[in-house]
């Protein structure tokens, strides 16, 4: 009887071990085209984000991070072929700029492409023309954009889908509030309303 109980116990333990191993090596689900991931940025926090960079604005002029020092910035990473996330965020940021009133004069909204192969300065200019005229589009070489993604901990991954005529890009969707001293002050998530964003921006301005 004791021997039978021993074998039952051993068998149960083996089943638990197999189940645990199977769970640990279960492949992660593939993200659907156009979806976003906030994992890399949201877990990184604010400390250590940012650094020096050189890009090209939507007028075709070379610019650096120092060109925007002294002003607050709302920076978003996206691409012009984005089907839904980027248009939604740009509309939200437009509402924020309008809601800030005169305070918006001290805020520069930057749209940094994660798709430099297609997003030329002209493409960015035409795309951002649908939104607030204060938006500045930034592009550059693949290496320059990769550098931006590294220093701001941005996630992006090209996705080839046989059902689509163009590739899409999965990417993180956070808005960076950057202070006049070039430090990242806050990371806005999609759940925050324009009014909440306005309050946070104004609080940051009062502290400086």
Task: Lay out the secondary structure.
Layout: H1 2-24, H2 39-42, E1 54-57, E2 62-64, E3 72-78, H3 85-100, E4 107-113, H4 121-128, E5 136-139, H5 142-151, E6 156-159, E7 168-171, E8 175-178, E9 184-188, H6 194-207
Parallel strand pairs: 3-4, 4-5
Antiparallel strand pairs: 1-2, 1-5, 3-8, 6-7, 8-9
Helix pairs in contact: 3-6
> What's the overall geometry?
globular
CATH architecture, please?
3-Layer(aba) Sandwich
Query: What is the distance, rounded to the nearest whole angstrom, between the alpha carbons of the first and last residues?
Result: 77 Å
CATH topology: Glutaredoxin
Assigned CATH class = Alpha Beta
**What percent strand?**
15-25%
Alpha plus pi helix count:
6
Q: Give average pLDDT, whole number.
A: 83
Q: What's the name of the CATH homologous superfamily?
A: Glutaredoxin
How many structural units, i.e. domains? 1
Q: Largest beta sheet, briefly?
A: 7 strands, mixed
Strand order of the largest sheet: 2-1-5-4-3-8-9
- DSSP, total strands: 9
Describe this structure as you would to a colleague.
The protein is α+β, with helices and mostly antiparallel strands. The protein has one domain: Glutaredoxin, CATH 3.40.30.10. Helix content is 36%, strand content 20%. The chain has helices at 2-24, 39-42, 85-100, 121-128, 142-151, 194-207; strands spanning 54-57, 62-64, 72-78, 107-113, 136-139, 156-159, 168-171, 175-178, 184-188. The strands form two sheets. Strands 2-1-5-4-3-8-9 form a seven-stranded mixed beta sheet, with helices on one face. A two-stranded antiparallel ribbon has the order 6-7. A hairpin with a 4-residue loop joins strand 1 and strand 2 (62-64). Helix 3 (85-100) crosses helix 6. The model is unreliable at 1-10 and 12-45 (pLDDT under 50).
